Amino acid sequence: MRRLLKQLKTTLAELSDLHAISAVLDWDQQTYMPPMGADDRGNQLATLARIRHKRATAPALGRLLDKLAVQTRDLDPDSDDACLVRVSKREYEKTTRIPSSWVSEFARLTTLAQSSWIEARREANFARFLPDLQRIIELRRAYAGFFPPSAHIYDPLLDDFEPGMKTAEVQAIFNALRPEQVALVKAIASQPAVDTSFLTREYPEQSQWEFGLDVIQRFGYSLQSGRLDRAAHPFCTSFGMNDVRITTRFNPNWPSSAMFGTMHETGHALYDLGFDPALARTPLASGASMALHESQSRMWENLVGRSLPFWKFFYPRLQSIFPGQLGEVSLESFYRAVNRVQPSFIRVEADEATYNLHIMLRMELEIALMEGSLEAKDLPAAWNQRFEEYIGLTPPNDRLGVLQDIHWSGGMFGYFPTYALGNLVSAQLWEKINQDIPDLTGQVEQGQFGALREWLRQNIHRHGSKFEPQELIRRVTGSGITPQPYLRYLKAKYSSIYSLG
Fold first, then answer.
1. pLDDT single digits (tens) 333-380
2. Helix ranges restricted to H, 284-322
3. Annotated catalytic residue, options 162, 265, 352, 468
4. How far is CA 80 from the centre of its chain?
5. How large is the angle between the packed helices 308-321 and 331-338, nearest 10 degrees?
C-alpha cells in the first residue's frame, strides 16, 4: 500500500502543479496583463486545462484509486491517507464524466469572456458581454448534463463549490432566512438614518493602502508568503502553501470599499495558508467548500472588522492617518457609519442586513438561466425587476446592475449561494469561538488576533478538504448549517445600533 500511495501522491502533485500554473496565469490576467493579451492567454489556459484534464482522467489513475480504495478500508477514516484516497476518487469520478474538449473550450471562452466583461462593465453595456455569456450558459447546461441523474439541473453546479449540498437544501435555508432579514431591514428603515457623510470625503489611495496593509498584517497575513495588488474585482488566489495572494480596489470617496474588501480577501488567504503542510500538493490542500471559505472571509471582514472592539483599537490609528476627514468624528459615529443599513446596488459593499438578499436574487436568476425559463438577453430586465422587489432600488445602468460581478464571465454558476451560506457558518463558528476563548473581545480591543487565528487553524484550516463541509461544521459546532446564530448576531448588533425594541 505504501508504494501505491507514493505513486498516487506523485501523480496528484503534478496535477496540483499544473493547477497552480493556471492560477498564476489567471492572477496575471486580472492584475498586470495588457488587454490585448486576452487571446493568447485564452489559448495558453486552454492548453493547460486540456493537459491537466487528460492526466486527471487517465485510466491508470482510476485503476490505482480502485486498488487503494480497497487497501485503505481498514485505515482510520479520518487519517490523511484514507481521506486522500476518498476525496481523490470522488474527484476522479467527477472529472472523467467531462470531455476534454469541453474543458479546453470552457477555459478558452472564460478567459476571453473576462476581458469582454471588463469592457462591458466599463461601458455599462451588457450587449458587449452577451455573446460570451450565452455561450458560457450553454456550456454550463452541458456540464450539468454530464451528471445524470440529478434532482435539479443546478445540483452539479452547486456541488462544484459546496460538495454534497443540494439545491433544495439551500432553497430551504434561504426560505427560512429571507422573511427574518426582510423584517429586520424594514424595522431599521423606520429609524433615523445613520450619518455617513464623512465617509464620502477625499481619502487618498496610498493612505488607504497603508492602513489596510497594517490591519491585515496584524491579522497574520505576511508579505513573505503573499502580496497585495489591485484588481477590477477583489479576489484571493493560491499558488501553493506559501504563496497566497490577494487583491483589492479603491474608491477615494468611500474608504470602506478597500478597507473591508482587503480584510475579506485576507480571511480567504489565512485559510489557504493554514492547511496542514502534510497535505501539500494534494487535493486535500484546499478549502472544504466555498461556504467554509466565505465563512472565513466574512468573519474577518464583519464579525471582527466591523465590530466595536476592533475599532476601539484601530480607530485612533485611522484618525491619525486621516485627521482632516475623521479628526472630529467620534468612535461611536464612525462605528455606526461603517455598519449603516441602507439598500445599495453593489453586492460587495452591501451591509450585513441586506447582503444575503443580493445573493438570493443571483441564485434565483442562475437557476432560471439553467432551467431555460430565462434567456440571457432578458437578464438585465429580470435583474432590475428582482432588485426592485428585493432591495427596493432599480439600477440606473448595467454597471451597477447585472454587470457588477465577475463570476459569470468565469462560468462560476453555483458559486453565489456559498456567500450567504458563509455568512451563516461564520456566526455559527463565532458562537463556538467565544465559548472557547471567553476573553476574545478583550483581545480584539488590544489588536491581538493570535488566539482567534490559532483556533481557526486548529479547528478549520488545517483539515483542508479532508471532510465534507456539513460534516466539518457538525464536528466543530454540533450542527449542520443553520440560520439561527446569524439571525441572533444581526438582531443583537442592529438592535443596539438602531435602538430597536
1. 999 999 999 999 999 889 999 999 999 999 999 999 999 999 999 999
2. 290-298, 308-321
3. 265
4. 26
5. 110
Q: What is the pTM of this model?
A: 0.92
Domains of the chain are 2-149 (no CATH), 167-498 (1.10.1370.30)
- pLDDT tens string 397-441: 999 999 999 999 999 999 999 999 999 999 999 999 999 999 999
Q: How far apart are CA 400 and CA 415, in angstroms?
A: 20
Element (H, E) at 390: helix 379-390
At 232 the pLDDT is 84
The values of phi and psi at residue 236, to 5°, are -125, 140
Cell of 429: 463558528
In tens, the pLDDT along 455-476 reads 999 999 999 999 999 999 999 9
CA 436 to chain CA mean position, Å = 26
Reported residue count of the chain is 501
DSSP string for residues in 326-354: HTT--HHHHHHHHT-----S-GGG--HHH
What's the CA gap between 21 and 11, in Å, rounded? Answer: 16
265 is catalytic: yes
Instruction: Classify residue 392 as left (phi > 0), alpha (psi -120 to 50) or beta.
Output: left
Nearest Cα to 423, choosing from 258, 302, 260? 302
Alpha helices (H) along 57-166: 59-71, 80-95, 100-123, 126-145, 155-161
- How far apart CA 262 and CA 50 sit, in angstroms, is 34
Q: What is the average pLDDT value for the chain, to the nearest integer?
A: 96
User: Which residue blocks in 415-483 are alpha helix, DSSP H?
Assistant: 417-436, 440-445, 450-459, 469-477
Q: What are phi and psi of 245, to 5 degrees?
A: -110, 150
Mean pLDDT in residue range 294-309: 98
Instruction: With a cut of 90, say whether residue 215 has pLDDT above it.
Output: yes
pLDDT at 501 over 80: no
What is the pLDDT averaged over residues 5-26?
Answer: 97
Rg of the chain in Å (alpha carbons): 23
pLDDT at 212: 97
d(CA 411, CA 223): 31
- Closest listed residue to residue 413, CA positions, set 379, 463, 464: 379
Q: For residue range 81-126, what is the model confidence (pLDDT) as tens digits?
A: 999 999 999 999 999 999 999 999 999 999 999 999 999 999 999 9
Evaluate whether 252 touches 234 at the Cβ level (below 8 Å): no
Distances (CA, A) of 33 to 114, 243, 350: 12, 19, 29
The helix (H) or strand (E) run that includes residue 381 is helix 379-390
Half-sphere exposure at residue 402, Cβ-oriented, CA atoms within 13 angstroms? 23
